[in-house]
Amino acid sequence: MKKILGIFFIYIVFVLQVAAQQERQKLYHPEADAQSEIQAAVEKAKKERKHVFIQIGGNWCVWCLRFNELVTGNDTLKNYIQRNYEVVHVNYSKENKNEAVLASLEYPQRFGFPVFVILNEKGNRIHTQNSAYLEEGKGHSAKKVLEFLENWSPTALDPKSYKQ
């Protein structure tokens, strides 16, 4: 009987750990109002002189989760994003495809997932990035991601950056 209880206890601990890990990986929220979240990010970006970085994908997308692990686990990328962007994760799943939002962003889903959209501080789309160009091996290249972020940052698009 003790052996059965011990096995049962180990099983319960395992199930709880798996459930906790799955909950942590809920990066995308089908129930979220993506348009409101984007608008709030634009307002904050305008005040802080940043751009808006929209990551579109779903919890079903391993590449979406890997990208997020890279940019939150790499201090250089994390700090660069915090200084230059307001981040919004827009869900795309069978529960909610956010079709109206994606139409307003000119159909970025055509590139697959994850896909990234950069908005300026006025909320205008200035770039859509196919994430396949940032891949390396079974993930994304920190170097390529940083270069992409630098090329679409507020400083990169500020005419003052190019005056002699």
UniProtKB/TrEMBL annotation:
Pfam families, per database record: Thioredoxin_7 (PF13899)
Gene3D superfamilies reported for this sequence: Glutaredoxin
Record-linked InterPro entries: Thioredoxin-like_sf
Protein name: Thioredoxin family protein
Organism: Olivibacter oleidegradans
